[in-house]
Amino acid sequence: MTDQIRIVVSDLDGTLLPSMGEVSTRNYECLQQLKESGITRVIATGRTLYSAMAVLPEDFPIDYLIFSSGAGIMDWKSKDLIYSQQIEADEVLELSKILVDHEIDFMILDPIPNNHQFWYYKTGNKNSDFDRRLNLYKQFSTPVGNIQDTKRDACQILAILPNKEAWFEELKTKFDNIKIIRATSPLDHESIWMEIFPLHISKGHGCEWLCQRLKINASDSFVIGNDYNDIDLLEWGKHSYVVDNAPLELKDKYQVTESVIKDGFAIAVEKVLSECSVKNNA
């Protein structure tokens, strides 16, 4: 079976979209050219739908948006929601009790598509990154008054921790039968965001679900990311790349392209498409 690329999946922040910047002309044109080649274009982001729509124009050249780390999928052209998952209220309550017992600041995001709205629990300990996110979305937030307030359906729970990997790993062991995803804060680029989802949720699973729907094999995929929350995606894809601004441990494991500010996405896509074309013509 010859190599071919039928689907291209990119993370957004730090991969396609620079911090405080815009998608470069070269990367934008690369996405447009993929359509002309009949290749499905997907963004897979940890952002909520609300947050992703705030930075992506309605006519942005993609076919599907996987958001909230795989908890939801939108058909970009029609803006129809084609997939969504949630954690049930009883389980959210039990998870919240664990976080409260360990004095962790966290947010309970409402079910999709309203997961920009959330309830929050704050310990009172210093947590600048938590405060920053709270201030950004203050109009959508409600404080937890007592533990029963946490008994509610949720897209996910977001716990914001200091950049102490050992603490994150230890806390992770307190949870069973739930998906824990580590992400680097997009706000201070340092704090650890512990994202808690239903067990089967990840960017990689979202891609697998979409590919089954589209009758595309994972072996026909190109994927690219820049952070720990892209690992499931990178493991799922056939041709997996990280940009040069990714953490060293990811660059040691996956193929590396130029950084987000040096058109790393377009360079990697063009390289893989060229290699596949050469193989197919050999």
From TrEMBL:
GO MF annotation: an example: magnesium ion binding
UniProt xrefs under SUPFAM superfamilies: HAD-like
GO cellular component: cytosol
InterPro entries in alphabetical order: HAD-like_sf, HAD-SF_hydro_IIB, HAD_sf
NCBIfam families documented for this protein: HAD-SF-IIB
The name this protein goes by in its record: HAD family phosphatase
Source organism per UniProt: Marinifilum breve
